[in-house]
Amino acid sequence: MRFARRSGILLHLTSLPSRFGVGDLGEAAFRFVEFLNRAGQQIWQVLPLSPTSKGNSPYTCSSAFAGNPLMICPKRLVMDGMLDDAALQDTPDFAEDEVSFDAVRQFKNCLLQRSFDMFGRARKRRRAFDFFCHKNRSWLHDFALFESLRDEFGTGDWSAWEPEVVRRNAKALQHWELRLATRIEFSKYVQFMFSRQWQQLKAFAKGRVEIFGDLPIFVAYESADVWAHPTYFWLDEAGKPTVVAGVPPDDFSATGQLWENPLYNWDELARANFDWWVERLRHAFSLFGMLRVDHFRGFESYWEVPADAPTALHGRWVKGPGAAPFRAAERKLGELRIVAEDLGSITSEVLALRDDLRFPGMRVLQFGFENGGNEYHQPHTFPQHCAAYTGTHDNDTVVGWFRRRASTQSDDRVMKYLGTDGHEIHWDLCRLVLSSAADTAIVPLQDVLGLGSEARMNVPGRSEGNWKWRYREEMLTREVEERLRRLTTNSERYTAQPHKHRSAYALPLSHGAGGTTRRR
User: Of 294, 342, 396, 439, which residue is the catalytic one?
Assistant: First the structure.
């Protein structure tokens, strides 16, 4: 897989500005697409869009297929005739620059319930809804039933549910499907509205920017996927994991990282022709034009930790499935536009697997100057066939990183390498990545804006306080836009003229049977 020479911005949807407490699929998302287009960017990279499980991490999801309800825009529900204006009049005064997940979740759930009540009275939308449910029948019903049972039993730990439900006894499931029918339909409706809003944004982005998605290798234990497909995971007779995922000690953590995701039983997945993985990739490529596969090294070998271990220290490396899941997907889906996240403890076997699949890997500039310097991640060594970053969602911002280096290290290696005095270090480092040989260059928005550690998205190993950062609308100034465009043009990553079409955000939408949108 070869990509054209392009650049883009990494920004998760929840980091967009919105008066509803969290970034969503509303007006700010459309304006961000237009900003990227005017700034010469051709890629918008986002983090996983799935509903989160513990800690609000997009990498710990309760479904590998569902969308996060927090990302549904209330204003667009009003525009869509699925919510009344009065419902938005009592919107709380949420903070501008961070997400208060619990408060936002409670607020949006009330709005979505109110919208669902209106949907029940608008039977003309039923055809599109039924089509969506049929199209997504491989995962949607299991997910909606899982959510409903989780609420009924008061826990996502499905091993603590009624024993017959844990074992997925057919009669028990039928009983609960009838008893929870309204809740199940509500859950499906929420996914229907997420899909409609996402597809509207995706259609608007077409011709302006390509949306670059992110696929976590693992799913949460408290997920519909593990409950619906227990044989695909290493679980005991009670449904509890026997081993879980993590990574050994590294630069991020002296005791490693204990992720607690259940590990796959790859032999069982292989016996089923990797159908679950193929469907997962099929669904992902219906949302995104290209895809980053997180923790790619886990397909070559993964760190297996006993489920009762207090840290990841006492794990072991276990051989993964290799190329087989991707080969199965290629046979059904064609060429896979995948970037392999090949960071961390990487061996020659991992690199050989990546190259055998012809996936570009990742290079991260910050890693090139840590612990005495790692030439592999220094820009003069970047090959064409890779995706280069100033940093990822797991790194500090480049300004925060540079300040920390200046306070703890005596050498000025970064400034010598750059030939700069460091007064605009974020632009210096952005220029370094964009002018490298890498086909794809990605910069987190925080680095373009020159923000410090207060804008960091995630600190690996820290269970609380992550994923909250949001930018304010006034930060995307004309000066930032023009400077980013000049930098992109000078590095020969941008030649086309900006998209001239009128913004579609405020245009009326009509709805076909498939739940898609078209302009009148």
Answer: 294
